[in-house]
Design a protein that fits this description.
The chain is an alpha/beta fold. It is built from five helices and 14 strands. The longest helix has 14 residues. It is globular. The structure holds iron/sulfur cluster. The site of iron/sulfur cluster has 12 residues, from loops.
């Protein structure tokens, strides 16, 4: 279940260079326009059931609500909207709201007064792409009062030493870059990240190889339809080099 209360974004670091996410709503709302969408109130929309004569929420309980995947929840332009978004999130403790950010330094802006050590139903992932962004964002991130934390390496652009930042992290998820302009993702970086996570007892997922994948020193172009499958198959790795599909 997706919820895009607003849409539009702009680059904040190297990983954003070829971002296509914020263009997904561009036909409807304009490219790069940061605007509230017509589904702003989606989590608290209700529907009347004439037979049972009851009114219930349109989004049923227990759903995971993937929030702000075509934007960033912590955009400056959304500071006022976020106040209402938090109110809706608080009103629906029966849903899990999950979002990612490359702007974790803005976490405290418009945070509700009753946040304390975090809402149980909110998962906030910190997205980084190289050592520089990891060192800039993660020391703050791990210190913040968030109940469920995960690190997203998207797109993964270099080897990264995460070992100082894994305390209190539930999962680490790594993605190679997709698209025609994609930069290389190297399998050696993935192996190293997996080892770091194992040492810290943190779950690691290699989610996607991306388009340009260096495997055992050799650069391979991976069919977009195979990027997730190959990444999944590599752990535990029984896949031989020959089994990687070239396009
Ligand atoms: S912050 Fe996220 S959505 Fe915004 S430009 Fe960067 S990668 Fe894209």
């Amino acid at each position: 279940m997706a919820w895009e209360p607003w849409t539009g974004c702009y680059p904040v670091s190297e990983g954003c260079k070829y971002c296509y996410y914020y263009g997904l709503y561009s036909k409807r709302y304009g490219q790069n326009n940061i605007v509230r969408t017509d589904e702003f109130y989606k989590p608290i929309e209700t529907v009347f059931m004439p037979r049972k004569k009851i009114t219930k929420y349109r989004i049923e309980s227990s759903k995971i609500v993937y929030t702000c995947f075509t934007t960033d929840f912590f955009l400056t332009e959304a500071d006022d909207w976020r106040i209402e978004a938090w109110q809706m999130i608080r009103k629906r403790p029966d849903l899990t709201f999950l979002f990612l950010t490359k702007r974790i330094e803005r976490f405290n802006v418009s945070l509700p007064d009753d946040w304390k050590d975090g809402y149980d139903n909110v998962w906030i992932g910190c997205s980084v792409e190289n050592q520089e962004t990891a060192d800039a964002r993660l020391p703050l991130y791990i210190s913040l009062p968030i109940k469920h934390k995960f690190i997203v390496l998207s797109p993964l652009l270099s080897s990264i030493d995460l070992s100082s930042y894994l305390h209190g992290i539930d999962t680490v998820r790594a993605y190679g870059e997709s698209g025609k302009e994609a930069r290389v993702c190297d399998f050696d970086w993935i192996i190293d990240l997996k080892k770091q996570c194992e040492a810290a007892n943190v779950q690691f997922y290699f989610v996607s190889t991306g388009m340009n994948f260096r495997y055992k020193g050799e650069l391979k172009k991976i069919n977009p339809y195979m990027q997730r499958k190959i990444a999944k198959d590599l752990f535990p790795s029984n896949l031989s080099e020959d089994e990687i599909v070239l396009v």
